[in-house]
Amino acid sequence: MKILISTDIEGVAGVFHAEQVRAGNGEYERARAWMTAEANAAVQGAIAGGAEEILVNDSHGGFRNLLPDGLDERARLVLGKPRYLGMMGGLEEGCDAVFMIGYHSRSQGRGVLAHTINSFAFARVVINGMELGEAGLYGALAGEMGVPVILGTGDDVFIEETRDTFPGAEWVQTKVAHGQGSGVTLSPAASRRAIAAGAEAAVRNFLRGGDNKAVPFRIPAPIECRLQTQSAALADLFCMWPTLERVDGVTLRFTTDSMQSAVRTLNSLAAMSFMLR
């Protein structure tokens, strides 16, 4: 049993402000330590549940937030970018299931620090008629590779938004969102205990099988992506890409043959958006 743990930071207990998720200040240094500790709790729970091999993917920002010298030595760490599979980097090694730790709700929602891929660029991402955030997009990428999501952790808005996408998964609520930058959180220690218990249960349930076993989230090709940008200027920029079609002032669309191709296109557009910052 080989698990990929994809770890973001906005859903980590105690994280509520943008300074906590941006390098270069003391609050970020504390938050990245909490992020590393929640990843370790997931590692510990997965092994207790029967997992034999663990990959931990640093899935926030520049993908180099987790503290390698603080990581449980039984896991290996996926760091740095660019990488084709983004937040699912590591699946190319042949994993059986995915944990999403510290995830957040999609853009335009009331979840803590909610956004989709890039808070500056994207207002909405709709795939084959379904509005998806990072969890849905990357869960579909994993599903295309035959791998289910079996655990998700983050705030209540993230869980409510995502639960039906991954039936059979375990969920751990680390905080309650009162808005983009406020809410009520578990202590880091309590969050780690809950994540370890959820991870152990997720692996045990997956290995046990049966009717409630998590299954891959698959979106059949062709993939149509309708993308609403945060501004018309961004839509102008993105339409320099010749395969994108302008629908209106802030809405674009493109069609492709796989979720991996769709995610790679979105990540490339997100990188382009920094030209206007």
UniProtKB/TrEMBL annotation:
Could you tell me the keywords of this UniProt record? Answer: Aminopeptidase, Hydrolase, Metal-binding, Protease, Zinc
List of residues binding Zn(2+) 2? 8, 60, 104, 134
Its taxonomic placement starts with:
Bacteria, Pseudomonadati, Pseudomonadota, Betaproteobacteria, Burkholderiales
Q: Which organism is it from?
A: Achromobacter arsenitoxydans SY8
Q: Where does Zn(2+) 1 bind?
A: 8, 10
Concerning Pfam families, the annotation shows: Peptidase_M55 (PF04951)
Superkingdom of source: Bacteria
* Protein name per its UniProtKB record: D-aminopeptidase family protein
Q: Which GO terms describe its molecular function?
A: aminopeptidase activity; metal ion binding
Q: Does the keyword Zinc apply?
A: yes
Record-linked CDD domains: DAP_dppA_1
User: Active site annotated at which positions?
Assistant: 115 (nucleophile)
Asked if the keyword Protease belongs to this entry, the reply reads yes
